[in-house]
């Protein structure tokens, strides 16, 4: 049995999809498993010992358009998969697997062009996204019957970039991630700056982490503080290593939240425009949520560029003392 798992969405979505790797391996322990992701997400899953390989699908660049779609379909068809599990619900994924003529294709009922699948299953919007993804395996049992832990494997220290390796502190450190893709999902920089000072007063070094788009906000947090700012300076693989070695993660609703959950790192997650009811909260790690209860939340599944009410209350009214209380709780600081 040769099986392909497809998830070509965002980085966080890929992490949230990884329990399906372990789940399908429970069903077919001798199967040869492959996963298709974006090139960037391939760094998240390429070290999973249950995967025989990863197929990067560069749908925005190299593999874009009809030419790229047909070329990738031919490549997959030649690999002779017996079964495909489509976690991504785009028309592109549905068409790709149909063109590849994989004998059994399973997707979700909410997928675009869902009629191209042999079987489709529903996702329960009330459940955590991990459980929603495991619903792809309903053919073999209910989602709760599968193990359910997210799977993320850090590189060896010899594999990470020299800049990251030589910069990380030897002393215990906390990772602080002040960025997020959605602007209204970000707690204000001054709050993160005060949090960094608090952690430093408790004896922790502070490492700021984020992507290239997070560089400006991280720079604002770092100004005047003796912190290590790695925002925009690490690969995804390096970021996994940095988080795995941390004693604590403080972040917004973002990909780093899911990375910390997968690596079982104590986490304080600040939710602004979004809420955990959307299904993207921490998962099976020591964690606390800090948020301002407001009737207008959530205003959007992914956060908006601007506050619809014009108040930005969900961001500005999060109490710093609630954040420090949550930190103390997860670290059991007396």
SSE blueprint:
Blueprint: E1 2-6, H1 11-17, H2 19-27, E2 32-37, H3 42-45, E3 51-56, H4 65-79, E4 83-86, H5 91-99, E5 104-108, E6 119-121, H6 129-134, H7 162-167, E7 173-177, H8 189-201, E8 205-208, H9 215-222, E9 228-229, H10 236-244, E10 248-252, H11 255-262, E11 267-271, E12 287-291, H12 313-316, H13 320-331
Parallel strand pairs: 1-2, 1-4, 2-3, 4-5, 5-6, 7-8, 7-10, 8-9, 10-11, 11-12
Helix pairs in contact: 1-11, 4-5, 8-9
What does this molecule look like?
The protein has 334 residues and is an alpha/beta fold. The protein is 33% helix and 16% strand. It has helices at 11-17, 19-27, 42-45, 65-79, 91-99, 129-134, 162-167, 189-201, 215-222, 236-244, 255-262, 313-316, 320-331, and strands at residues 2-6, 32-37, 51-56, 83-86, 104-108, 119-121, 173-177, 205-208, 228-229, 248-252, 267-271, 287-291. A six-stranded parallel beta sheet has the order 3-2-1-4-5-6, sandwiched between helices. A six-stranded parallel beta sheet has the order 9-8-7-10-11-12, with helices on both faces. Strand 8 (205-208), helix 9 and strand 9 form a beta-alpha-beta unit. Helix 1 (11-17) runs parallel beside helix 11 (255-262). 46% of the residues are buried. The model has no long low-confidence stretch (mean pLDDT 96).
Keywords:
single chain, 6-stranded parallel sheet, 334 residues, 16% strand
Describe this structure in a few short sentences.
The protein has 334 residues and is of the alpha/beta class.
Helix share bin: 25-40%
**Subunit arrangement of the protein:** single chain
Count of DSSP E strands?
A: 12
Strands side by side in the biggest sheet: 3-2-1-4-5-6
Going by helix content, strand content and strand pairing, the class is: alpha/beta
Taking the alpha carbons of the first and last residues, their distance comes to 53 Å
- Low-pLDDT windows of residues: none
Strand content: 15-25%
SSE run: EHHEHEHEHEEHHEHEHEHEHEEHH
* Envelope shape: globular
Task: Give the biggest sheet.
Answer: 6 strands, parallel
Helical stretch tally: 13
The whole-number mean of residue pLDDT values reads 96
């Amino acid at each position: 049995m040769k099986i392909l798992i497809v998830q070509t969405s965002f980085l966080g979505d890929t992490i949230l999809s990884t329990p399906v790797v372990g789940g399908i391996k429970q069903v077919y322990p001798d199967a040869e498993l492959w996963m298709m992701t974006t090139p960037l997400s391939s760094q998240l899953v390429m070290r999973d010992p249950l995967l025989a390989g990863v197929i990067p699908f560069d749908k925005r660049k190299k593999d874009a358009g009809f030419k790229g779609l047909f070329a990738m379909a031919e490549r997959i068809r030649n690999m002779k998969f017996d079964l495909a599990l489509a976690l991504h619900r785009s028309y592109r994924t549905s068409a790709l697997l149909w063109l590849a003529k994989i004998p059994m294709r399973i997707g979700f009922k909410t997928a675009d062009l869902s009629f191209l699948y042999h079987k489709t299953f529903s996702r329960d919007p009330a459940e955590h996204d991990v459980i929603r993804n495991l619903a792809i395996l309903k053919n073999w049992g209910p989602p709760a019957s599968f193990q359910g832990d997210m799977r993320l494997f850090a590189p060896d220290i010899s594999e990470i970039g020299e800049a990251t390796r030589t910069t990380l502190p030897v002393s215990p450190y906390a990772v602080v991630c002040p960025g997020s893709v959605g602007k209204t999902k970000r707690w204000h920089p001054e709050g993160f700056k005060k949090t960094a000072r608090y952690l430093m007063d408790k004896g922790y070094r502070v490492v700021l982490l984020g992507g290239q788009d997070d560089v400006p906000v991280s720079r604002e947090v770092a100004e005047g503080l003796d912190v290590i700012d790695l925002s925009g300076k690490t690969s995804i693989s390096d970021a996994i290593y940095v988080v795995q070695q941390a004693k604590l993660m403080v972040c917004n609703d973002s990909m780093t939240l899911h990375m910390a959950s997968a690596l079982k790192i104590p986490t304080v997650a600040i939710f602004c425009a979004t809420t955990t009811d959307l299904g993207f909260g921490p998962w099976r790690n020591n964690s606390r949520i800090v948020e301002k209860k407001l009737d207008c939340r959530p205003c959007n599944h992914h956060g908006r560029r601007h506050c619809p009410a014009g108040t930005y209350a969900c961001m500005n009214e999060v109490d710093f003392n609630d954040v420090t209380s949550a930190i103390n709780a997860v670290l059991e600081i007396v």
